[in-house]
Amino acid sequence: MSIPPLAALRAFEAVARHLSFTRAADELGMTQAAVSYQIRMLEEKLGAPLFLRKTREIALTETGALFARPTIDAFDMLRETFSEPSADSVSTLSISTVPTFAGAWLSPRLGKFQMNNPNLAVRLETNDNLIDFGREDISVAIRAGSGEWPGLTAHHLMNVEYTPMLSPELAKKHDLRQPSDLLKLPLLDASDPNWMVWMREAGVDFWEKRPKPGLTLSTDLHEARAALAGYGVALLTPRFFRYELATGSLIQPFKQVSENGRSYWLVYPTGRRNRPAIRKFRAFLLDEISCDPG
After folding, report:
1. Tell me: domain 87-294, CATH 3.40.190.170, correct?
2. Which of 51, 72, 139, 256 has the fewest CB neighbours in a 10 Å radius?
3. Chain centre distance of CA 157
4. In whole angstroms, what separates CA 89 from the centre of its chain?
5. pTM
């Protein structure tokens, strides 16, 4: 099959990215009817529908989803190639990551990055949702996982590690000589499967001594706050709470540190890999990681 007309591909890329004929038409400076015509031409050439047209929204069909990601990446690369050389002299780097990574590790370092790049505005957003780079105004994301996301370039930052921590006041009330003694205390977010992994590796038969229902919080930062207040034992990443451990406001009663096979990754669409702002942030992050002993 020959390559479809560029006008049709351009219309398809915009509609697939916005999932809206109206927004695609506005971006392209075309009428909505003209965009629809280009999509129909492409669908006829491919012999399959690309979008499911609903009352107030559209969605990609299976065929549409198959072609959308590489088409969006290709146009992203073209936009990057033909952009003005000075286009990055004043721009914004928008970063999305999970709250714990942002608050416990990234935020204290972002000021240094921005000072080293005074012409680059930096915006940090935190949420637990996966980013759709084609529809959201996000430059890069930092996420936990296996590092395999189709269409995205991923750079390994650090492994996800965790160990129990609690306040010294709570620890004084209990004789914590061995890991199984933790079962006498309230475990924060006790349903977290990582507790099972840590207990098993520490030699504790966790499931025969299942803890009572307790407090469940949405992020490690909230769990750390609850642990600081003496409400229970939190399963936390030592790298993220060095200050609390160093000052003694939290203690790590046992040396055992476990992993769950997941890591933190810097991710972005492959077509953006040469953007100056992303190159600078990538280099900065990897340098900070190399200087961080873990």
Report:
1. no
2. 256
3. 12
4. 26
5. 0.70
